Amino acid sequence: MPRRRHAVPYDPWQGTKIIIDPATRLHLPIHRNKPTGNRHKPQVRSGFLAVRFRPRMRSRPDGTVFPKETVTQSSGLTLDKVAIRYGETIVLRQIDLEVRQGELIALLGSSGCGKTSLLRAVAGFVPLASGRILVGDADITHLPAERRQCAMMFQSYALWPHMTVAQNIAYGLRVRKWTKDKIAARVDEMLHLLQLEGYGERSVEQLSGGQRQRVAMGRALAIDPALLLLDEPMSNLDYRIRLELRHEIRALQQRLGITTLYVTHDREEALTLADRIVVLNAGEVAQIGAPEEVFHRPASPFVAMFMGADNTLELTPPTGAGAFDRSWRLRGGDGPGLDLSAHPRAAALAGGGNIRLHFRSEAAHVAGTRNDIPAGEAIQLPGAVEQIAYLGEHWRCRVRMGAANIWVDTTTPLTVGTTAIVQVPVSALHLFPVST
Amino acid sequence: MSSAAEQSSPRATWAGMALVSPALLVIVVFFLGPLLASVVSSFQTKAGAWTLANFDKSFELYSGDVWYTAVIVLVSTLVVGLMSVAIGGYLTLGTNPRAQGVLRWLYRWPLFIPFIVAGQVMRTFLAKNGLLNQLLIGSGILEPLAAQSYLDWRGIVLAFVWKQTPFVALMVAGAMAAIESDHIEAARNLGAGRLRILFEIIIPQIRRTLMVGLVLSYVTMLSVLSVPMMINPNSPTMMTVDVAYRINAHGDYGVANALCLISLLLASVGAWFYLRHGVARKGVQ
After folding, report:
1. Which of A10, A233, A312, A359 is surrounded by the fewest CB atoms within 10 Å?
2. Does this model's pTM top 0.95?
3. CATH of A309-433, one of 1.10.260.40, 2.40.50.140, 3.40.50.720, 3.30.565.10
4. Nearest CA of chain B to the CA of A56: how many Å?
């Protein structure tokens, strides 16, 4: 008699018990036959049939509905040397990050820097090349996306068009097998929280962009997630709605006390919303810090540029000992020496090679257009006005000095071709060695 | 002058008619004309008198075959639907890229094989001494004496499913691939497993495409002669075989046309679904 193969389907989760971590409320598998050191590392299953034999997710332990002023049992997040690669391309390398419970972290960077990949890795949609992801103390690195309890809000909102607003919000609760009454109560609560009362039975296709954004937020929050992951949630909205919603999101996040990762390429959004900002550049962390710190004390030329200090000038250092004051000069220029002695980093950089200074257009002004800054507290940059653009509240002028161009904001329009002396407070300068 | 006004001018109307007329003429001469003649003929005797005798005879002799045809085509359509969803679902949600690649490569092959070849292949495969029984006997699952022929309704269903599944699966897989991956990931993110995503997120979004594919497949199967002729030409058999028999053996165009009209009514059910969904879709657009 030939042997029947696969008479009993192979189930890699056989002998596995699912527990709900009381701290994180994550559904964690415990392998009874494995050493305890491996208890939080579930085996990754593959294949379509494996779905049939997957242990069922448990419904919420007590099945109760949250009161309106509830604070979720949110957890902190730890990224431990996280690396991601797509084939041979390294997308993220060695990312270390500790997100405190209830904190909102903005992942800020330009397109392709890896910020969305990092968010998707936390959500479980992108496998790690190396490193670990922990929610609270639980290692979720190998947990499938559907079991991570990390609610993600997609850039496109990803609302299902064949469902109503209420059905979209209720979906995660139906998956968790809540009773109809409790689902209805929770949906009502979400609609109230997001000011969408009366919209429950509408098709999502009948909603405006801002309303869709709220529905997506409600769907994510309804399941009371351990982590909230927001992937550029306002990039599809117009500016005025973005301004309104960013404050609403911040207020809601603080009210619920939910740990949040917020991906954006908009620095203003990051500065407004975040407790801390992580600036990413080419797959690496360029700087982590509070918004004020990142804005005023950028750690690298990239961060300075990204945070708006995009006027750059290269300076040559003092040529001889004792000739420090007014001895920095524009590289390739024949203008006057620049006095940087008031800057805290100038002395340290004086002994090295060329430096690059960065400053914001709004930090500079043209001498004579308003009160001049006292000598010694500002550098003076003479140049010719080449271009003027009206921005509404002020004019932005391009001033050429030698081979370099800078942009400066003025309250009165300048005449193209005239000479202007641009003053920049030393305290508004960011200095970096050219090698960085 | 606006373009709308130009289009509604008599000259533009005649030009439009002139452009459409060749296609319209082909439809009238080669499709509507013969169809109308066939319908009229089904209500006439050979002498040209009006009668329902052709239908009486059709139901007397072939009512079993009408049911046989309807059941076979409906069962085949159902199985085609299930197989297409399974194939499309695995191509969309599967986790093994190699298996997906193999499936994607394989499932379309029967599309390029004519029905008559499919019938012949099934005949070789399903006969009492065919390849299927040999495999079952060789693997010890079946005793040689218990071997039986599958060249009956089962064979026809299998041939139809084998031939039509790739067509519907192609449409379904395309529609599934067009769904934004965010929609699937959003469901996973909320804790839904793959089967749940398939039935609750994906199928509702592609149901119109699935319905259109199944309707087209249903009508195609209803009109196939070669497969039932190759696999099971004996009674009970499908109506297409009966029609061919009435014409070739008896020259009985009246009953043949009556059977064709009954077949047309069965196809109309599918057409009704097709138009209903087509109109609904157009309304949405």
Report:
1. A10
2. no
3. 2.40.50.140
4. 10
